[in-house]
Specification:
Transposase_17_sf; 5 helices; globular; 222 residues; Alpha-Beta Plaits
């Protein structure tokens, strides 16, 4: 199974040419944070500890199944800077009209991922902005004393990665601001699960992912 490479796949389609993405099936998807920034928490001793933003990532993932009747969620995991999950798209067969409705562009895997990204960005942005307002930070990232925000240099580049556990650190918020609230990379990795063996292997990969974080390709701290 091909691994997602942000440099190879940058601004290019990762999908299978000619495949009908509105048909029923199982999909293994990976969404990665912009610049692979660690925004969702930290892993200690093989256990993922979500911060507030990580919990939002989980909540909105589960909410996807609630707002889309044709979606069933299988194994998933939110990591410090990405999320892995298996999404199943189903189509009812009771009515041809219903089937036609579910095959609209809004029911494709791309639309599901896009909706998830929008929902998480909206909630996280709201929290960061609310924190700024409560602390008197202006739109330029300076506090009321005119001091530069910590963790970001004059060019807006990240100086270090956050090590948040259960509460987002000020650094995590500054990283999100420096990314101009672009929480996610533009593209996402997608793999169609075609048989039971692949389903089992991918499910185990997702479950074991936190334990393998030290060697994870997305880990900026390795």
């Amino acid at each position: 199974m091909e691994q997602y490479n942000p440099y190879k796949h940058h601004r290019k389609s990762i999908r299978l040419v000619g495949y009908d993405y509105s048909q029923a099936g199982l999909y293994f998807v990976t969404l990665v944070c912009q610049d692979r920034a660690h925004l969702f928490g930290d892993i200690k001793d093989g256990i993922m500890y979500l911060n507030e933003f990580g919990q939002i990532a989980v909540d909105e993932w589960l909410h996807t199944q609630e707002v889309r009747d044709n979606v069933v969620l299988h194994e998933y995991v939110v990591m410090p800077n990405h999320i892995h999950g298996i999404i199943e798209i189903q189509y009812p067969k009771e009515s041809s009209n219903i089937v036609s409705a579910f095959k609209s562009p809004s029911q494709t895997i791309g639309a599901i991922v896009r909706g998830y990204k929008i929902a998480t960005i909206k909630r996280i942005k709201k929290i960061v902005k609310r924190t700024e307002e409560s602390k008197g930070v202006d739109s330029k990232g300076e506090d009321s004393k005119g001091e530069d925000s910590k963790g970001v240099d004059s060019k807006g580049e990240l100086q270090f990665a956050p090590t948040a556990t259960t509460v987002p650190t000020a650094t995590t918020r500054e990283i999100i601001k420096s990314l101009d609230y672009k929480i996610w990379q533009r593209n996402y990795y997608e793999h169609i699960i075609r048989d039971e063996k692949a389903y089992i292997n991918i499910s185990n990969y997702i479950i074991e992912n936190p334990k393998r974080w030290i060697n994870d390709e997305y880990n900026l701290l390795q």
